[in-house]
Write a structure and sequence with these properties.
Layout (H helix, E strand, L loop, with lengths): L1 H26 L4 H12 L17 H22 L3 H5 L2 H23 L6 H12 L4 H10 L5 H28 L6 H24 L1 H10 L5 H19 L5 H12 L5 H26 L11 H25 L4 H10 L4 H13 L5 H25 L17
């Protein structure tokens, strides 16, 4: 019972603080997500260290909030998928593919080149570059929803580019791990990774077009309390699980794909009305705050300050230059290409996944991992702020609890 009471109190503090910070951020003309990220940093080990307070000091809360934050980002990407017009997103194919591709290649090259002068080996430098190649558009998607431009050409191209980025980044990571660790299988292991990705995306799309709409319609007619919402929640979770466990791509890609496919159903409006309160009342705020709760900026050595600043600068510039150039080559105007490039800059949980995989394989040490975590936090905070400045005429951000996703 004591553990439940500690969790209850901590959750109440986190949600209340997130909503208050989001409100203040909105009053200042910034996206609510920016305030939620900053309050997470304040509540984390860097300043207040909320989860270590004696009244909450059982030691189990960090892992609990970590799991809740993953659930929050999955539902956030599912809702972002609901907002997307699939036909319109597919029409952005050329800029999305080029932006996603160059948005991976450029960070790998620039990140590796910047790391070498700091004394890292070639293997470590490549590992750093691969961390910079990751993109998590959950933060950007939330910001664009608040600004009401997610369904614009830039927003749709951004989401498409993120899928391309995710597939390429995971494929390159798999190749790197196979070569660097001498994993058995060599080239065949890499081919198997690619086959899994293609098979998952094909099967998931087929199910989403043929089976899931009929399933949801059937469940919606049954005399079950909130049956449609429950079935939708289950489908989103299964797609998330299958994406990573079976397809080898990030779980957020599966959640986003589920949202896109279900968004084509005639039941979309009813699903949106049910999922928005569930998602934005507490799970998404927990996700944003948890990013700060897991970071201790005071642990960084003074000697690593210049390294950290260099990595953050490259993290931002490489995505803006790479993805932005790809979008420009794909036919976008300069301003829209810049917006897309900035929107790809946040690394979020995908960057953490890549860094954790390299750490577990023994390819990077604690020093690189700590630098990577702070870089991820910095890009996560700066991305919504920069996006807001690039949309000066989008108006005052809408409340995070009820994003419109419409222009």
């Amino acid at each position: 019972m004591e553990l439940l009471l500690q969790f209850t109190l901590a959750l109440a503090i986190v949600v209340a603080a997130a909503k208050a910070a989001g409100y203040l951020s909105g009053r200042l003309g910034q996206p609510a997500v920016l305030g939620e990220l900053l309050i997470g940093l304040i509540l984390g080990p860097t300043l207040l260290d909320l989860l270590s307070w004696p009244i909450l000091g059982s030691g189990h809360l960090a892992e609990t909030f970590h799991q809740l934050s993953h659930l929050g980002v999955l539902l956030l990407m599912f809702v972002a998928g609901l907002e997307v017009d699939l036909k319109a997103m597919l029409q952005t194919g050329r800029p999305a593919v080029l932006a996603g591709s160059l948005g991976v290649v450029t960070p790998v090259l620039l990140g590796g080149l910047v790391a070498l002068p700091f004394g890292f080996s070639l293997q470590e430098s490549i590992a750093i570059g691969l961390i910079l190649a990751a993109t998590s558009v959950s933060i950007s998607a939330q910001t664009l929803m608040e600004l009401g431009v997610l369904r614009s050409r830039v927003g749709l191209a951004l989401l498409g580019a993120a899928v391309v980025d995710d597939i390429l980044a995971i494929l390159l990571l798999s190749i790197f791990l196979a070569v660097a660790t001498g994993a058995a299988g060599g080239a065949m292991a890499v081919v198997w990774v690619l086959v899994r990705m293609v098979a998952f995306l094909g099967l998931a799309s087929a199910l989403g077009a043929l089976v899931i709409p009929r399933l949801l319609a059937f469940v919606g007619r049954l005399p079950i309390s909130e049956g449609l919402l429950a079935a939708t929640f289950v489908v989103a979770l299964l797609y998330s699980w299958a994406a990573e466990a079976l397809g080898g791509v990030a779980a957020i890609t599966g959640a986003f794909l589920a949202g896109v496919l279900i968004g084509r159903s005639p039941l979309r409006r009813a699903i949106e009305e049910g999922m928005h309160p569930l998602t934005y009342a507490w799970l998404v705020p927990v996700f944003f705050v948890s990013i700060g709760l897991g970071v201790d900026a005071t642990a960084m050595k003074v000697s690593d300050v210049w390294l950290e600043l260099a990595i953050i600068a490259v993290a931002l510039l490489s995505k803006v230059l790479g993805a932005g150039l790809g979008a420009r080559l794909g036919g976008m105007a300069n301003k829209d290409a810049l917006r897309l490039g900035v929107g790809m800059a946040s690394r979020g949980e995908v960057g953490l996944i890549v860094a954790a995989a390299e750490s577990e394989a023994g390819l990077i040490g604690d020093r690189i991992f700590a630098v990577a975590v702070l870089m991820i936090l910095a890009t996560t905070i700066l991305t919504p702020l920069l996006l807001r400045t690039l949309y000066p005429k989008a108006g005052k951000p809408a409340p995070a609890a009820a994003p419109t996703g419409r222009e």
